[in-house]
Amino acid sequence: MTSILVVCTGNICRSPMAEGFLRDALGRRLGEGAPDVSSAGTAGWEGSPAMPESVDAAGEFDVDISGHRGRRLTIEMARGADLLLCMATEHRDAIDSAARDLGERTFTLKELVRLLEVEPPDSVDEGFAVRLHAADAARRSGAVPPSRDDDIADPLGQPPEAYRAIAWELHGWIGRLVDGLYGPIDRAGGVAAEA
Q1: Mean pLDDT of 124-152
Q2: Which of 18, 143, 152, 185 has its CA 20 to 30 A from that of 57?
């Protein structure tokens, strides 16, 4: 089964929300065939629950992350994932420094979305691995210039409004990611027809 590992720093704020939103979106889109989604942190607070503000912010989207427990990212976890989806460039760079061979499947969320949107899927059956390969090829070719806005800000220590803002940002980018990987949904609930 395909697996996605969402990565941030402490694995208690951003990545639990992103994990929850992505699991929810993929489950609604693909049902039982949805990729496995988990998360970890480069300095993960092992066993810690998600911050209450993250739980509340995710709950506003009807996504329950109250059972989340933080994990520290290991190379074994990273190697076991088909996609490493990082919340910031520092996380992508840390993975690249630890294991250069993982670079072709390691992206920031915003970077991957922009790369996928350069070339929409040829068909809904194109497949996860094919889409990731196309995104990596687009990155290497320079089809999408690097952005200075690849990071999702860390709300740790901020008021609840900051968590809510990050949740809204993550939810929007996750929706675009799922469309980029599997094709957009039309308003009637089906996959949009190709033009």
Answers
A1: 85
A2: 185
Mean pLDDT of all residues in the chain?
90
Which of 95, 110, 107 lies closest to 173, judged by CA? 110
Pull the structure tokens for residue 54. 């993250």
**Among candidate residues 79, 80, 100, 88, the one with its CA nearest the CA of residue 43:** 88
3-182: which CATH topology? Rossmann fold (3.40.50)
What's the CA gap between 3 and 104, in Å, rounded?
A: 15
The kind and range of the H/E element at 109 are helix 109-118
Distance (Å, rounded) from C-alpha 91 to C-alpha 110? Answer: 13
- Alpha-carbon span 87 to 107, nearest angstrom: 9
Please state the pTM of the whole predicted model: 0.91
* Terminal-to-terminal C-alpha distance of the chain: 31
